Amino acid sequence: MMPITKNGLARIRRQLVLLQEGFMAESFKIDFQPYGKVESGDLIIFVGDDLKPTPAVAKQIGSKAVDLIAKAAAAESFKGKAKSVMTIVVPNGLTVDRLIVIGLGGEKERADVDFVQLGGLISGRTNGKAATAVLDLPGIDVSPEAAADIALGVQMRRYSFDRYKTKKDNGEQKGVTRLTLSVADPAAVKKVYKARESVLQGVTLARDLVNEPPNVLGPQEFAARAQALTKLGVEVEILDDKAMKKLGMGALLGVAQGSVRGGRVAIMRWNGGKASDKPIAFIGKGVVFDTGGISIKPAAGMEDMKGDMAGAACVVGLMHALASRKAKANVVGAIGLVENMPDGNAQRPGDIVTTMSGQTIEIINTDAEGRLVLADVLWYVQDRFKPKFMIDLATLTGAILVALAQEYAGLFSNNDELAERVSAAGKATGERVWRMPIGPEFDKMIESKFADMKNTGGRFGGSSSAAALLQRFVNDTPWAHLDIAGTAMGSPQSEINRGWASGWGVRLLDRLVRDHYEG
Fold this sequence. Notes:
Elements: H1 6-24, E1 29-34, E2 42-47, H2 55-61, H3 63-76, E3 85-89, E4 98-103, H4 107-111, H5 115-124, E5 130-134, H6 144-157, E6 178-183, H7 186-211, H8 219-227, E7 235-239, H9 241-247, H10 250-256, E8 264-271, E9 280-290, H11 310-324, E10 330-340, E11 352-354, E12 360-362, H12 370-385, E13 390-394, H13 399-404, E14 409-413, H14 416-429, E15 433-435, H15 440-445, E16 453-454, H16 462-471, E17 479-483, H17 506-516
Parallel strand pairs: 1-6, 2-4, 2-5, 5-6, 9-10, 9-13, 12-16, 13-17, 14-15
Antiparallel strand pairs: 3-4, 7-8, 8-10, 11-12, 14-17
């Protein structure tokens, strides 16, 4: 374990300040209150495709307002479709500034409503100083969990990353400064929402890490961000070049050697379960910037390669979420942190590296570097911790975008039960995965004439052959690989993500742990 120096402690304190700034940048407050009359600000209510609010809401707003909704809907061709919104300014019969009517659609749409996305929709349609959303939804049972998810979506929508802008965009709509959610049981919702706040902080941390510029967030600085989790009770070890060389991590070090900024491995441990319980493990690819190395990438769009550490960012965000909500599980998070640069000392196509496992890899393309980093970290985790399972996350291949666009992450696994649980968590959170093939055909693609394997199997089936290489470093441990190249950075804007980095994976994996692995 690398000792923490005085300079290291100072750096950690600076990282904590940055995190606090990120979480506290906006003076926004969200409240949970019982149903009651709303006198001012924005009032948000919901209707189905019949344009009728629930009887309780209709009674609350009065018959004049109900008639006004019908008249305004006819004038504006508002039909109550899912996610449609109609705004009535200074509504007759009410003292509020605006009446915002959100459509929920028909019976089918209401059965499949995504409460987190609905929260984002609410957040994006409000302005002014205060708003109240009455969470009495026609045809939908809003449980405390559902209400807490709506609040989570509200907060996720509000995220922005403008730390380096000297002039803030005053024209950008940030929404209200106070939002009240009217619910049936405020106390129950508040209790559930405490855990959602932990998840929110984890997502925010992951987003911040991915958004940071690469000159600010190198391997050492990233390791310091992981080290900051000690404040939450997470045990953190940092392996430097010397420690990794002693362990024989030749694949990871081969990638790192082209940069003047040395590599790091951060190992985070949250011990919230029984001492006798095997841990569960999450591993992240942390290439803080990827030029492609000697096999250099085209210049256009290379700036996006600051996000090639999104897998590591997710793992750090997840560990924050689990520790913050005091998850009853033993969890290991491990991230390999490197910068892939075309220095005179960089590795070359044709080089052969020896991994920690003793297996050798021929370098065909230095831009297929993430699998080299993961190979050593996967082996280290399975060898040292003997976990129940391992899940790795990596922005690993462009090929996964060709297959799944930016709608799903690619899921590869050697264990059907684990794969099914990950898929279910993805469906529940909206962070969807699609299982992809991995087998002997793809394993054959990475056979090498000169080493045990080569680091790329060619253009066809690129995501599967990359996963096949990773599988050689997990032994018999149940394992899943998530290729998040399409979902974690540059992801499409949605109701809950208006920025470049989505923080993808934190909610999915927190849900996986919560549903199946807490005692």
